[in-house]
Amino acid sequence: MAYLSEPVRVGDVLGDTFGFLRAQWRPLLLISAPSLLAAVALAVVQKSLGLQEKPELVFTSITGSLASSVSLITLAIAHLCFVGTLFFTLERQRGHQTGVAEALRMGVRLFLPMLGVRFLVYFLSIMAAVLLYVPGLMVYTMLWVADAAYVAERPGIRAALSRSRNLTRGSRWRVFLLMLMVFVAAALASGLQTAAQRISEWAGPFTSVFAGMLWAILVPVLAATLYRHLKTAREGDEAADIAAVF
């Protein structure tokens, strides 16, 4: 396998990411629609049960069981839609006319193995962070495209992590910068949610849902695009495939 001659360019990755979002926003919204509806349902349940004002109610038997059940279902649907969005992005960037239904079916099919990949990424990053914060960030940076590598190549759960580590070698500062941009965007969204909460008691939860929707689309599209750039830098030019979707 050839080693890349230079790191990926942050501007190119961002440009292709937002270009893809502009070109494919309709199907992306449809793929993420179940996650949005689940998040709205969760916000309504939490508001109806008074969990926004009194979070300690989650520890009561009936209220806690109901809230926990809805939360778990919401997380499961969000994970399914994340995988579907990742698959859709990778396939469309290859020039394949993948549809919304096929993307959601793939989300169901890859639900459990992708859960394993994401668990290992977070577990290893947290374990490294227990030693020192910086090693945790380094591990997370190395493994940031493990999700995309698994969906694109199906190499196995552990092999997907190794694949991400190999692909990011030589570009990890650039990958870290992209990751930092995502964290900053998340912080800004959290600040917007807090401000909206002060305006209206319902504005906060629904602002959170909207921000979560953007996050659910942006992160997998960015991860898929970064994976394609990293793979191209090491193994060949796929720029024509990516450009074909715009």
Number of helices: 10
Strand % is under 5%
N-to-C series of helices and strands = HHHHHHHHHH
Spans of at least 5 consecutive residues whose pLDDT stays below 50 are none
Based on CA atoms alone, the radius of gyration comes out at: 19 Å
How widely separated are the two ends? Answer: 30 Å
Question: Mean pLDDT, nearest integer?
Answer: 82
Strand element count: 0
Q: Describe the main β-sheet briefly.
A: none
Fraction of residues in H or I helices: over 70%
User: How many separate domains make up the residues?
Assistant: 1
Principal-axis shape equals globular
Keywords: Membrane, Transmembrane, Transmembrane helix
Organism: Sandaracinobacter neustonicus
Protein name: Glycerophosphoryl diester phosphodiesterase membrane domain-containing protein
InterPro entries: DUF975
Give structural notes.
The protein has 246 residues and is mainly α. The protein has one domain (25-236). 81% of the residues lie in helices and 0% in strands. The chain has helices at 10-48, 61-93, 100-109, 111-131, 133-142, 146-153, 157-168, 172-199, 203-235, 239-243. It is globular and about 55 Å long. The mean pLDDT is 82. This is Glycerophosphoryl diester phosphodiesterase membrane domain-containing protein. InterPro entries: DUF975.
